[in-house]
Amino acid sequence: MNNQPIKLFETHDDVIVAFVGEWGTKGVFRWSTDEWTFFQHGSREWDQFHQMAFGTFRADPITPDTLAARGIPSPPDQAPELPPLPPSPPFDPTQKIPLAETWPDTRPFLTEHPDEMRTFYLILFEDLYESYHGDGTYLYPHTAYLDKEQAERDYNLFIQITLRDTNPSCGYNYTMVEIPFKYVSGTKHVESIIQLDLFEHYSLFDILRQLIVPGMPPAPPADGDITMIYFENNGPTPGWRKRR
User: Fold this and answer.
1) Cα 138–143–145 angle (5° rounding)?
2) Rg, the chain, Cα only
3) What digits encode the pLDDT tens for the residues 51-71?
4) Cα 97 to the center of its chain, rounded Å
5) Residue with the larger pLDDT of the pair 178 and 55
6) Among 135, 193, 219, 242, whose CB has the most other CB atoms within 10 angstroms?
7) Which helix (H) or strand (E) segment is 212 a member of?
8) Are the beta carbons of 213 and 135 closer than 8 angstroms?
């Protein structure tokens, strides 16, 4: 059997991996203390390392000389013959988080109408610089609301600020989506159905972490120069929780 191509990488958290086959399609070996461990194509471990090496670029290519200098033997040049992985279970879009894990100041509003379907209004932002110069378009969670009018007011303000930017490859763009949820009184958790569209990256945890409720100061736009424009026009917003 012919040897298969091997591509070596070291992740940014110091894990050495060796992909087998073109673009790692035959699997990946990971160096662990004193041996190489193999993970099949399509496994969770393979997907994690493959994204680091070929998607998010959180791994750097290395050479066999790097392994030799560290006293690490070369990885096997063939992927072991293994039966195919079983198909993944059907995706369940339902996400649940205990009420005790939410911000205390949001709980009275989350539990106002127990066991009834309600709506989160989530503003997503796109980093235009990343879209123009990075490896794709991503929509990240910015702020979530229970009040539709407040969400639309902030969304329109953010859009107006974005339109002032004369450089289309910088700044931020915004999208607003509606997410159904309910507070389940019997088990005391917040439950939501999250159906992500293309480019969207968020979870119920993100929504609850970034939820604005009545009595809280308004949120500024996404971090960057336009945030300063917002503060100049609207003044500081003391007490607004820092989103991370």
Assistant:
1) 130
2) 23
3) 889 877 789 999 999 999 999
4) 17
5) 178
6) 219
7) strand 211-212
8) no
